[in-house]
Amino acid sequence: MDKFRRNEVEASVEDFDRVIQLAPSMKPYMWQRGLSLYYLGKFTEGAEQFRIDVAVNPNDTEESIWTFLCEAQLVGPEQARKQFLEVGRDSRPVMRAAYECFKTGQPPEKIMAQVTDNGGHDTFYGLLYVGLWHEAEGDKAEAEKAITAAVATPYARLSGDYMASLARVHCLRRGWAVAGAAGAGKA
């Protein structure tokens, strides 16, 4: 996980694979591996990782969305929606809205409508998933706008949340300017 946070994505997959080799029963719980696979463009393997995770955690909204993100890269967003993983109801309004937007293809304004803080958890997650939605739909400019804004939130800068690191890695991998990216790793 530390290697991923430093944008050493290839090395992170090697480490995750080593864990699975030593303890195969851990594979369903390696959602971080799925994220690393996504950033390496290994979408088939990433989708498989997320589907395995949802099989053991059937209420995992984010893994359902990440399955879609991988599969959208392979077969396009419309086909990926036809095979969208159903999961239980997320207790977080922002993530419930994100799930519905990804599943239905509705524009992501509904996600930000659920934000109730100012630069906190909801703002960060809302912006991240709005950006990911736009990227899946092929709108790179809107994706960049939203995800770089997510990285700039106080939550992203201060929380230590793995997904805040993911947002920074996302920007670095795409060559987008990242505010406060010192120590975020090489581009």
UniProtKB/TrEMBL annotation:
Q: Which InterPro entries match?
A: TPR-like_helical_dom_sf
What SUPFAM superfamilies does the record tag this protein with?
TPR-like
Where does it sit, as one GO cellular component term?
Answer: chloroplast
Q: Which PANTHER family match?
A: PTHR47908, TETRATRICOPEPTIDE REPEAT (TPR)-LIKE SUPERFAMILY PROTEIN (PTHR47908:SF2)
This one is known as Uncharacterized protein
